[in-house]
Amino acid sequence: MLMKGKRGLVVGVANKWSIAWGISQRLLAEGAEVAFTYQNDRLGKNVRELTADLKDPILIPMDVTSDKQILMTFELLKRVWGHLDFIVHAVAYAPRAALEGQFLATSREDFRIAHDISAYSLAALCQSAAPIMGEGGAIVAMSYLGGTRVVPNYNVMGVAKASLEASVRYLAADMGPMGVRVNAISAGPIKTLAASGISGFGGMQRHHRNRAPLRKDTDAAEVGDATLFMLSDMARGITGQVLYVDGGFSIMGD
């Protein structure tokens, strides 16, 4: 029961295959109370179905591009819980046209959208969460190797993940004096709703499986376990870091 008595928010559950849902299951199993956001009514239906067995789940409509909705989310959590112990940021998006061909062809608008949703949203969440988080608080964001290396067709999303990882470091420095830790998990390629928009994703996954030292796909349960560790008091001395959960693929030369 590593998370017993802890309350937190998971942002990014879309369906049962979501990395965010795999993480949520581990947090719930370890005693955490979890609130969930959803972007729109369609995804809200999925989240309601996934949480149907939970007692009085807190489900909140929130679009991360809306400062007003983000603020309202944390005001609600303050009224219901009084404080917040953790946040999981598992949100990323870029227009499909920007996830094929060359990064060179990225439009200004696609660049803006990718960075707003995939990177700035972490800072926006932290701004509104800071007043109700304190000593022992922890935030974990989901990243990918494409933020540090060139991955075919990942394009502007890779640049956004690089921005996300830099944001993790700066937010860790700002929130550390408050007693709040900020880290990231860089997972191997997992087939999710977001991943389906990346051209050639199947090939990316096969290459990972063939080259990773463990010779296997990364699965959401592995990411869930790592995130559980980073959010728990067992990782109380770790902040501003990116933990790779990719079967060792990131250590290889190609």
TrEMBL record:
This is Enoyl-[acyl-carrier-protein] reductase [NADH]. Substrate binds at A94. Transmembrane segments: none annotated. Belongs to the short-chain dehydrogenases/reductases (SDR) family. FabI subfamily. NAD(+) binds at G12, S18, I19, Q39, D63, V64, V91, K161, I190, K191, T192, L193, A194. The active site is at Y144 (proton acceptor), Y154 (proton acceptor). Keywords: Fatty acid biosynthesis, Fatty acid metabolism, Lipid biosynthesis, Lipid metabolism, NAD, Oxidoreductase. InterPro entries: Enoyl-ACP_Rdtase_NADH, NAD(P)-bd_dom_sf, SDR_fam. SUPFAM superfamilies: NAD(P)-binding Rossmann-fold domains (SSF51735). The keyword Cell membrane does not apply.
